[in-house]
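Dear colleague,

Thank you for sharing your sequence with our group. We've completed the structure prediction you requested, and as agreed, I am returning the results in plain text so they can be pasted directly into your records. Please verify that the sequence below matches your submission; if there's any discrepancy, let me know and we will rerun it promptly.
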Amino acid sequence: MARDYMLKHKGFPGRLPGSDYQFVIRRANPKGVTPLKALERYKDRKPSDKRADAAFMSALWSYFGEETFERGNLDAGRLSWLFGREVVPADPDDFDPASYEAELKIDVKRAMATFPELFASEEDEEMPDWDAMWNGDEDGEYED
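Please find the predicted structure tokens below.
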């Protein structure tokens, strides 16, 4: 039975700091739920797009970990960049891509392969300074 409201993930980051990359939506779309679909990530994507993907994956991992989670107010556009790869249906046989109640989970092995810096243990290496990278204050591949 469908609910008449959309689950809001309290405490989940609303956007990538210092950007217009949105992570959650405020209210349900009155024209209907935007369906999730896997978007192709080409190698020539902008560094800021790649940072948004990494930050969103980091937020998902911090908030949900390996647990199944409801789509709720997570932004369909941002989810679609990870959908079908790092984020998959919890039950593929009972999945509605156009439902706020859709159950998802992180494919941990795939996420670790795509975003190894997010899953590096303290013993392996020091975690990157995400704020510096998001703000473009660090040299290297994260410059726009």
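Summary note from our side: DSSP finds five helices and three strands in the chain.

Kind regards,
the structure core
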